[in-house]
Design goal:
- It is a single chain.
- 39% of the residues lie in helices and 14% in strands.
- By secondary structure, it is α/β, with parallel strands linked by helices.
- Strands 1, 2, 3, 8 and 9 form a five-stranded parallel β-sheet that branches. Strands 4-5-6-7 form a four-stranded parallel β-sheet, with helices on one face.
- Helix 5 links the parallel strand 1 and strand 2.
- The longest helix is centred in the middle third of the chain and has 18 residues, at 240-257.
- The structure holds iron/sulfur cluster.
- Residues 76, 78-80, 83, 85-86, 122-123, 206, 208 line the site of iron/sulfur cluster.
């Protein structure tokens, strides 16, 4: 049965499939799979159902986080086929930031109304590179994670920004330690397809991209009730069924622990200089279908898609049911996709408002997860309280 048949078939309840979807009918795996494969004619009905779900969840509002991007180190022991960020020691552009550089960026962001310090870094570079071990020794740390923890703590203590670290795989102990200095953290699941670890595929020579290991990190964050950002990366060699399995794996963890604060649907973009530079990018239709199905599968989870990766047509992502644009910086470039600059915040605002929404600045932790953070005593709780307004959004919002 095609989606159209599913949509137009009148079930016993006498409501159409579409009406039921629009009214929050749970979507089975089989139905979600059909929706991912729907025809272009059927797409508007899918988008309408996803949009209705979004509006039930968070009517009239789209959020973003005004952030600075802090690429603590771009050395990484993994070699993902789509990555332009990573470097080996000695390669042009290889860099580990000093503490002064970290604080300088954070303070500059503070002056521009940013409330999030997004720490992005390679995974465990010291395990592969003696040069990184020497750098860490010079800085006075045993590992990259020790250095990250210290920088999160300093940003938290010395600025009004809230850290959001993305350091790769984490043990239970490291989740506990980083959760003491950051209100949320993140790890993209990317995909549950283990065949992408195979020779010549996207995760060939990327030991930290084993899906079971990434699921374990996300689960451990759940056990500790840490607000967590994850998501999928589409167009790296996976099938639509893999995308569905990835979404279902995230949903299952969220059902068990209730800690997934947002799911990012990120689309692969080809760029010169990466192993997958000639790889076809996912189409606009694939992106819209994936976002819409993510929304229908997780109607009460924040769904995000980065606007710069769908520019200039990013407004369409609103029609597919996202409710968040993710981190957007007025200061630092997107180091992961440097060829795709973030839209100017004024542009993002007018594009959002033209579709009838209010654009609101959120913190690194979403309003509905604030209580989990502020319930704990200490500096982090104080800083989060100070940063939030009464509704849990950013309290120091500046004009875009
Ligand atoms: S995507 Fe992340 S883990 Fe993979 S090579 Fe780049 S920095 Fe390393």
């Amino acid at each position: 049965m095609t989606v159209k048949e599913a949509i137009t078939t009148t079930p016993a309840s006498s409501a159409t499939f579409l009406d039921e979807l629009r009214h929050g009918m749970p979507v089975s795996r089989e139905e979600a799979c059909r929706l991912l494969h729907c025809t272009d004619d059927e797409l508007p009905a899918l988008l309408a159902a996803a949009l209705a779900a979004k509006q039930r969840f968070k009517p009239g509002v789209i959020t973003y986080s005004r952030k600075v991007f802090i690429p603590l180190t771009n050395l990484c022991r993994d070699y993902c086929g789509y990555c332009i960020f990573r470097r080996d020691p000695g390669e042009p552009g290889a860099h580990t930031m000093t503490p002064d550089q970290v604080l300088e960026v954070a303070r500059a962001g503070e002056k521009m109304g940013c409330t999030e310090a997004l720490f992005s870094l390679g995974d465990k570079p010291e395990l592969a590179f003696p040069e990184m071990r020497a750098t860490l020794r010079y800085l006075g740390y045993n590992s990259t994670l020790h250095y990250l923890e210290s920088m999160c703590e300093r940003v938290l203590r010395e600025t009004t920004l809230l850290p959001h670290p993305n350091p790769g795989l984490l043990s239970a102990e490291w989740i506990t330690r980083l959760a003491a200095v950051s209100p949320s953290m993140g790890l993209m699941l990317e995909t549950t397809n283990i065949s992408l670890l195979g020779s010549g595929r996207a995760h060939d020579n990327a030991p930290d991209k084993v899906p079971a290991k990434r699921l374990r990190t996300i689960e451990e964050a759940g056990k500790q009730s840490v607000p967590f950002t994850t998501g999928l990366l589409i167009g790296i060699g996976e099938t639509p069924e893999d995308r569905l399995d990835t979404l279902l794996a995230i949903r299952e963890l969220h059902r068990r622990y209730g800690h997934i604060q947002e799911v990012i649907v990120q689309n692969f973009r080809a760029k010169p200089g990466i192993p997958m530079q000639d790889w076809p990018e996912p189409t606009r239709g694939e992106m819209l279908r994936t976002v819409a199905v993510a929304r229908l599968l997780m109607p009460e989870v924040n769904i995000q898609a980065p606007p710069n990766l769908s520019a200039p047509y990013y407004g369409e992502l609103l029609d597919a049911g996202i409710n968040d644009w993710g981190g957007v910086s007025p200061l630092t470039p997107d180091f992961i996709n440097p060829e795709k600059p973030w839209p100017h915040l004024q542009h993002l605002q007018s594009r959002t408002e033209s579709r009838g929404y209010i654009l609101r600045q959120r913190l690194a932790v979403y309003p509905e997860f604030l209580a989990a953070v502020t319930a704990r005593p200490g500096l982090l709780s104080e800083k989060v309280r100070a940063a939030a307004d009464r509704e849990g959004y950013a309290g120091r919002t500046k004009a875009a």
